[in-house]
């Protein structure tokens, strides 16, 4: 029996949550307010966690979303969160393009959008890039050349980015790529965040989501 991947687990959870929310609304034959939807999904997540309904891979996500809903109520927008997860993970599932090809296509898109793009330098120490406010992407040359084989991504690649996060996420998704959530502390380029892409889009945790 094959073990479930994180992508499969989080997509299963999101689809189940939305389906149970719809079924509950239909049973009551009433339109729910956003606050009522969030309350339903918060309770649904609590029960799912308690019953261990889903993979351990998403247990931390459930815990974080429950905490968010309890502190923000309708502001947590749990329904919208699940919808975003379904949209992004299903989008990359349906994409047939090899991820090495996809990354190179994304790089070309960013160049055409007037980003500063550097892919010809080894990144093994802290560096500073003077971009004068321009959006920028830096990728270590060894990773770019050694982590792609026959157009396929065979090892993770770090993207050092200074730009609007949503724009980056949207462009990556348009090329069939999921990116990890940005990390400023791990970045080797000053004023940039580190994002990572993984073979087969199999990130170990929740990807950067579109708003």
Explain this structure to me?
There is one protein chain. The chain has helices at 6-28, 34-50, 59-72, 78-94, 99-112, 141-146, 165-174; strands at 116-121, 136-140, 148-149, 152-153, 157-162, 193-197. The mean pLDDT is 94. The protein has 7 helices and 6 strands. It is elongated and about 60 Å long. Strand 3 and strand 4 (152-153) form a beta hairpin. Helix content is 48%, strand content 12%.
Task: Present the secondary structure layout.
Blueprint: H1 6-28, H2 34-50, H3 59-72, H4 78-94, H5 99-112, E1 116-121, E2 136-140, H6 141-146, E3 148-149, E4 152-153, E5 157-162, H7 165-174, E6 193-197
Parallel strand pairs: 1-2
Antiparallel strand pairs: 2-5, 3-4, 5-6
Top keywords for this entry?
single chain, 211 residues, alpha+beta, 4-stranded mixed β-sheet, two-stranded antiparallel ribbon, 7 helices, 12% strand, elongated
């Amino acid at each position: 029996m094959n073990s479930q991947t994180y992508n499969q687990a989080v997509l299963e959870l999101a689809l189940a949550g939305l389906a149970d929310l719809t079924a509950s609304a239909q049973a009551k034959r009433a339109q729910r307010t956003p606050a009522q939807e969030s309350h339903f999904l918060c309770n649904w997540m609590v029960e799912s966690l308690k019953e261990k309904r889903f993979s351990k891979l998403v247990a931390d996500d459930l815990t974080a979303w429950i905490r968010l809903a309890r502190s923000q109520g309708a502001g947590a927008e749990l329904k919208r969160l699940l919808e975003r997860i379904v949209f992004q993970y299903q989008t990359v599932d349906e994409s047939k393009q090899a991820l090495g090809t996809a990354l190179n296509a994304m790089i070309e898109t960013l160049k055409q959008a007037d980003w500063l793009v550097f892919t010809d330098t080894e990144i093994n120490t802290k560096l500073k890039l003077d971009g004068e406010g321009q959006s920028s992407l830096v990728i270590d040359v060894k990773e770019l050349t050694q982590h792609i084989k026959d157009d396929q991504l065979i090892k993770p690649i770090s993207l050092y980015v200074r730009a609007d996060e949503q724009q980056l996420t949207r462009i990556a998704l348009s090329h069939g790529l999921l990116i990890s959530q940005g990390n400023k502390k791990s970045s080797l380029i000053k004023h940039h965040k580190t994002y990572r892409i993984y073979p087969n889009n199999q990130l170990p945790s929740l990807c950067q989501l579109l708003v």
